Amino acid sequence: MSETEIKNKPIPFKIRLLSTLRSILDFITSIFFKLYYGTEGNKVPPITDDILKQPAVEVARKIRNRQISSVEVVEACIRRIKDINPIVNCFVENRFELALQEAKKADEVIRSGSKSVDQLLQEKPFLGVPFTTKDCIAVKGLHQTSGVVLRKDFVAEEDAKVISLLRENGAIIIGLTNVPELCMWWESYNNIYGRTSNPYNNTRIVGGSSGGEGCIQAAAGSCFGIGSDIGGSIRMPSYFNGIFGHKPSRKIVSNDGQYPCAATELQEDFLCIGPMTRHAIDLKPILKIISGENSKKLKLDEPVDVGKMKIFYQFSNNAPMASNVDPEIITAMKKVIEYFELKYKIVGKEKNIKLLERSSPIWFGTMKSPIPFGSYIIQDYSYCRIYREIIKSLLGLSGNTLIGLFTSLLDSKIVDLNSEKYKNYRSLRDKLEEIFKEMLGDNGIFIYPTHPTTAPYHNQPMLRPMNFMYTAIINSLGFPATTVPLGLSSEGLPIGIQVIANHNNDKLCLAVAEELEKAFGGWIEPQK
Fold first, then answer.
1. pTM above 0.85, yes or no
2. β-pair partners for 349
3. Which residues form the active site (predicted)?
4. Residue 403 CA to chain centroid, in angstroms?
5. What is the pLDDT of residues 83-108, one digit of tens each?
6. Please, are residues 189 and 401 in contact by the beta-carbon 8 Å criterion?
7. Nearest-angstrom CA–CA distance, 211 and 227
8. Distance separating alpha carbons of residues 90 and 93, to the nearest angstrom
9. Torsion from C-alpha of 124, 126, 129, 134, nearest 10 degrees
10. In the chain, how many domains are there?
């Protein structure tokens, strides 16, 4: 069947009905949330330390050249975190004293002159630069709760592999940021540290599971961040907070030291760790470090000729349980397509990949684990215990979040991963992956919404649970993807897109991110 025939094929009545009901529900509930929260929310105060507005690579250069000290930068981050955290609650644990000690040592190395500026650039490119990571990636001596009350006293004994690699390259970890319970929801809230709010409007969510990290980067509380992504956990928070976030190709960055760890080989394929930054230029050098020996597979130092790319795009996944894509997001996407056509004479090709309508069953089916979700978060886990905790949660007496308990309930059934049903899901996944591989080739990118709406109000995701499928399906396929900010909506909330490339072609995503940052302005400081 040709693409024209696919586009003109009548939509089944059941699908049209579900889509209509979905739109009506979104409309009604949006009015309710707007009346409840109001149209205005608080923003974070303006950034007073100019060094925090600059790219991490520029901060590193200034530290190496003694234009500013590492201690000064760490102190600027500490001040900023103390300014913003009462408003947004993104930062959950610090190692400020240790970070300052490490900063002093970095400054001493630079002042000693034992190594030239060029040597420092080659050996420790991020010497003295402070960064943060989410509370599910192990940092020695800090808690690693993943938002689970049962783990509130757990302290990591070793750094995760990515943290170790960054520290070997001179970066200084200053603390941890907030996540949802067990990192398995797209609003960052748990019963240890509470809820994180959006720096552009604190009535809105920051996304999840790297929500605290997206927030602290947007608000300039550290020079760069590290997140993880199994269904959009880097890209959604980056999108909602107006920053850049990159999900690497499958199995490029080590997941060692992350909790929970992958329970199946398929989950290991989906799960990945990547950079979150205010500036696109920082993505590539950070990715080069955290991918270790695997960075050779990415050929990040090879130049990318943007003018020779092929561009494909799709405005919606057309899934009946997902919200309609906001017109402002579609307009932003069209401007990107027009930009490439005007500057590089590249005519983008609109696609209608029908299998994207089945993103939800593909992701859920291939994500299924033999370990029930509830066993991670509920003591003495059992089916009856889930109901007991739901009642306690409604009364404000449970250590679990309501969404965590509902997820436990839905995931309580033990399944046979070798059954025909789950083999079929994997077959659909493989078919969709082949469609993308054939389309993208060696020089193609796919422009796609990161999310169908701007940042929802707090708790609103519970009424729009399938909207994260725009990012989740890309995890299923293992492709690299970068969220790129494209300004603010009429409500003053970030909007943007995700740029997807073929396996190990991360450099194309990063090159496009840098190109679009220059064209559209990139990160915009949230201000009162």
1. yes
2. 312
3. 134 (charge relay system), 209 (charge relay system), 233 (acyl-ester intermediate)
4. 19
5. 999 999 999 999 999 999 999 999 99
6. yes
7. 9
8. 10
9. -110
10. 1
CA distance 217 to 525: 10
* Strand-pair partners of 204: 457
Residues 6+ apart with CB under 8 A from 503: 249, 250, 437, 478, 479, 480
Q: Pull the structure tokens for residue 485.
A: 């900010």
Q: Which two tokens stand for residue 92?
A: 């959950």
CATH number at residue 186: 3.90.1300.10
Active-site positions read 134, 209, 233
Which tokens in the block code for residue 498? 């995700």
Before 46, cis peptide (omega within 30)? Answer: no
**Please, is 252 exposed, middle or buried when counting C-beta atoms within 10 Å of its C-beta (0-12, 13-18, 19+)?**
buried
Rg of the chain in Å (alpha carbons): 22
pLDDT at 1: 39
**CA torsion angle 446 452 456 459 (round to 10):** -100
The three-point CA angle 311-314-319 to 5° equals 155
Residue 21 lies in a domain: no
What pLDDT sits at residue 13?
A: 66
Under DSSP, the state recorded for 273 is: E
84 contact partners, CB below 8 Å, separation of at least 6: 44, 45, 90, 199, 216, 219, 221
Omega of the bond leading into 210 within 30 degrees of 0 (cis): no
The pair of three-digit structure tokens given for residue 250, joined into one six-digit string: 């499958």
For residues 211 and 188, the answer to whether their CB atoms sit within 8 Å is yes
Determine how β-strand 494-500 pairs with β-strand 481-488: antiparallel
Q: Is residue 490 part of a domain?
A: yes
Q: The domain containing residue 93 runs over which residues?
A: 50-370+414-520
397, part of any domain: no
